[in-house]
Amino acid sequence: MAIKKQETGKVTFWSPLRIVSTLIVLGMLAAFGVSSCNSNDPAPTVPKRPDSPASAGNEPNPAMPAVVMETEMKSANGDPIKLSNYSGKVLLVNLWATWCGPCRNETPELVRLYREYQDRGLEIVGLSTEDPIASEKKVQDFVREYNVGYHVGWAKPEVAVALMQGRGSIPQSFIVTRDGRVAKRFIGFHPQKTPPLLKQAIEEALSDTARSR
Fold first, then answer.
1. Tens digit of each residue's pLDDT (9 = 90 or more) over 127-138
2. Which of 36, 42, 74, 117 is the most exposed place for a label (fewest CB within 10 A)?
3. Treating both helix axes as pointing N-terminal to C-terminal, what angle do 101-117 and 194-206 enclose, rounded to 10 degrees?
4. 151-154 and 122-128: which strand pairing?
């Protein structure tokens, strides 16, 4: 692109065409470049696992940590949440927050998956990483706005730390088999790529053919 000179002799870098091109690029980045948010929780103190942004690493399906399964947590409807109560079911655990854009984009997909697979034994628990007191109304409003039929509550700090394992981005989703093992882990959300991968992982877990990836 030719650089124009003003009458004063100064060089003008921001021509109209360059400005328009820059705005288009920035708009594309805003629309497609964000797939996860950083959690407000303190940095986890456990070692990182070799996970990619899309799914879990190449290692045997680990058991869900006992602190995650046995800790009683507050729910949006007032009943306590304890993940060990879902033993024998295929469970999708979702870490999220009301302020997280990708989490909001993912929620309708989780609602659809729950409606499709609930009768086959799938349970979904959404655990917000926000403060349960400060965010109580926001989470309850969120549940109503998105017509969420699955269980929603708040992850206690020790539960969030154990689940994240050094990866502080949200949303994060964990597909847990009937015997309490993590078949698949998803970090972030891509509107085209993530839904079919979630569905495949759920199908495998429901048919007891889930394998480590």
1. 999 999 999 999
2. 42
3. 40
4. parallel
